[in-house]
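Readers of this paper often ask what the protein records in our data store actually look like. Below, we set out a record of this kind in full and without editing:
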Amino acid sequence: MKKTIVTVALILISFGVSAEKFEFVAIGDTAYQGEPSIEAYAQLIELINEQDIAFSIHVGDIWGASMCIEERYEEILDTFNTYLKPVVFTPGDNEWTDCDRHAYGDWEPADRLQMLRGVYYKEAKSLGAETMPLVRQADVSPYTKFVENVRWLHHNVLFLTLNVPGSNNNVDIAVKSDLLEAYERNQANKAWLRDSFRIAMEQDLAAVVIAIQAELFANTGGQRVPPAYADLVNEMRIATSRYSKPILLVHGDAHRFTIDRPFSAFGPGRLINGNFMRLQVYGDPEVRAVRVTVDPDSPWIFGFEPLYLQ
């Protein structure tokens, strides 16, 4: 039987919440190489289960080239539920935007997104053997489709997810339905981001963590943002300027373990937008995760340690 962890996340009220040190695990883009990598992933989950963490965040791409059939989604749901602590999943391109490829089954991406929502986001809570309540955008805003965009509060740090996949954010100028889907989702993502930072500023929260799938920056300088993501990146840049405390973007997609500050630039006597840090998780062929330490009493708040099998 699943246990539900009762926290303050549902109402997002910060008073009475202590700024305690805690850890979480970030993972994504893994177990692509058939049985050997699936077995390695199962062992990695066992290792994650041994850690003293609050929860895990999976940033998408739950399989490689695989048929996007309901049975496959259900198999991965069973895998998520082998995590002992809560796990929050935000979708990647492999599990919906890429499903129009022949190797994936020639599905309409929007159809597979609906399938994904029905399997992983039935209730306002995380996955995992233990669960924690989440606030879904669909439940508190006019964007009633977007059950996958969630947020929660843990020890005075606000976490939120946005459905921002790779494969050009499902922007296909030749397919009108894809353009309409991408436009609506982009509007929802921007609204969720703005509202979350409003809460962070009003409640004077210690930090904000954003989890998505897509690689938004073509290089570490952040100077070449693909057009399909430019609008959202601009919203993040604005939020970074208004909210002066640490912000961490966690994502996958490019399969390169990266920690950097893509918005930072030197201004008159100070570093501008240096409070925005990003963590790109490991990806195939490596089966690895990242343990993130969150210490609100430290100057930078976030610390990182690779987590993998010997």
In short: The mean pLDDT is 89. The two ends are 32 Å apart (CA to CA).
